């Protein structure tokens, strides 16, 4: 994770979670209250998304990656962990416009799935990745 995207306390917590899960399967209970404290109402829904294996990392042959998260509504959102961005309306409103949250549940689910090794992997062609990016641009456009 890029240190410019999240406050240091959030980065440290995600590192501790990763370490705890590598050492024991009881890490979720240990860190649940800390996640709620730092990430607020996004924490529990993000953990649910991780439990449901809703996070997929798409990787192209050139090494470019992006994440797709199947939201609780059934809609697929594209997340960019490298720049701390999600295409969901909550991210645009709560994070960007109002600055009420550090991130939405989808981006937190991406970070948690990375830390917990719970991310599904999908190899895609450069053309497929480009088409996903262009489709997102059109949706926002």
From TrEMBL:
GO terms for cellular component: Shu complex. GO terms for biological process: double-strand break repair via homologous recombination. Residues 77-115 form the SWIM-type domain. The gene is Zswim7. This is ZSWM7 protein. Keywords: Metal-binding, Zinc, Zinc-finger. GO terms for molecular function: zinc ion binding. InterPro entries: Znf_SWIM (IPR007527).
